[in-house]
Amino acid sequence: MSLNPPDVTFVVSRSGDASIFERNFALSPCLKGLPSDRLIIQEGFSSASTAYNDAIEKANTDLIVFAHQDVYFPTGWLVDLNRSLEMLENSDPDWGVLGCSGIKYPDIHAGYLYSVGLGILGGPFERPTAIDTLDEFILILRKSSGLRFDPTLPLFHFYGTDICMSARKQKRGCYAVSAFTVHNTSYGPLAPEFYKCYWHVKKRWKEFLPIQTTCIKITRWNGDYIFRRFKHACFSVIGRNMKLLPRLEDPRSVLLSAANPAHEHNARDGATALIGSK
Which is it for the CA torsion 6, 121, 126, 255, positive or negative? Predict the structure, then answer.
């Protein structure tokens, strides 16, 4: 297989504290030497979908990687991605969406990443793993596929689920690929905006219910939704606030742990159980 990285455009939506972008995404060594037109930074958009659709039109490459500003791409990430792309060229050349963490109903997870508060999740696996939905911290698609994010989806949640459902509607496969990444996020209670997007996606994709995502299960009777809202209400009543988990000062500190063989769970069948969720 080729060790040459693919020609790709990276898209990141930047907002809030500028240091988050500078201490994570901007530090990624796999971005070094990338032509300036291969990086699109989106700011000032009212939703992730509109920001990303705009970036698709701007992109000068077919392959596009969408990422959160708190993602760190280690050296060799593009080579790992290319390995999966070459496999898919033989097994499913009409694939829809790729990512680095995904889930297949009811609870089969696939991925290899570091996530704040959860540690190193999964382990390296040989082949791209077919899943239902992808965690949107990294999404990969081809401009030529015609897939686009729902412009009516508000705010910044569930757009990963939405684009995977769009691919499913077109009978295109979605896959998790083995390319270790650091998601230096900050977890806390789910915001009201999250639930607003939940209802939007449930209505838009009701034909595919139940839909399992890496955050929540979308069902006809909203069992997971009700449980989460009840839990949050109980915590509020007893005065137990869910505190934000702080980000790592330096995402590069994770790489020594990731290189430790004790963390590398063999998953050659392409499916790796991830313990915990957002």
Answer: positive
How confident is the model over 94-132, as pLDDT tens digits? Answer: 999 999 999 998 888 999 999 988 899 999 999 999 999
- What's the DSSP call for residue 221? S
Query: How far, in Å, CA of 102 to CA of 127, rounded?
Result: 14
| H or E element at residue 80 | helix 77-91
8 Å CB contact between 154 and 198: no
What is the C-alpha separation between 249 and 246, in angstroms, rounded? 9
Query: Which CATH topology does 8-187+245-263 take?
Result: Spore Coat Polysaccharide Biosynthesis Protein SpsA; Chain A (3.90.550)
Q: From edge to edge, which strands make up the β-sheet containing 174-176?
A: 39-42, 8-13, 63-67, 138-142, 97-99, 174-176, 129-131
Q: Distance (Å, rounded) from C-alpha 158 to C-alpha 173? A: 18
